Amino acid sequence: MDVAGGEDSINLTKLQDFCERSMRHAEDSVRSFLGDPLRLTLCGIHSLPSNALSVLSTDVECGSMIGLYSRITGQGNGRVLILVPMPMARRFLRALLGESNDPRPLTEMEQSAIQEIGNIMSSSFLSRMGDLLGRRLLHSVPELYLENARQLVREVQASVLAIGSRTLVVQGLLEDVRERAQGRFFVVSEMAALEPIVHAAIEK
User: Fold this and answer.
1) For a designed S-S bond to 68, which of 118, 165, 174, 175 qualifies (C-beta 3.0 to 4.6 A apart)?
2) Ranges of residues in the chain whose predicted pLDDT is under 50
3) pLDDT of 82
């Protein structure tokens, strides 16, 4: 974890605890919705400048991914990016809709189901993080990118740079326990949203 110090000094122990608790809440919510084993774990916290942007690119190169993208609103500014391998997405659909594993284009209903999974994951993480921070963190309805995840990642990279240096990237690993498939979960947030943790570090 490469979180910067100085004026943006953060209580790293508290930050990691908040992120892990928020991810567990998101994991529980999605598992309850799917009725299927799923694991979401924290695997990195980065501040800019960092290698967080190169991590995004590397993940997309790992295989055929679909993307879900939301904007963080309310008392925070940022982005949520979820990258899911198509085999994992199809397993989610089988759990929800009983659909086959045929390699055909997704129907409109199936696309909506995947968006709802992304919606539950994002909203659960942000609601728990918001509760822990004492802030109201909302998000937009996830946009689904079926075939151009690379372009999505480039757009998120550009938006991260546009937010500026006071930016934090929380990286999670999404795992299908049965199939051992892996996806990625990224939350990009302005440092200002973490003021309670920043103050805790300064006052310590």
Assistant:
1) 118
2) 4-8, 200-204
3) 94
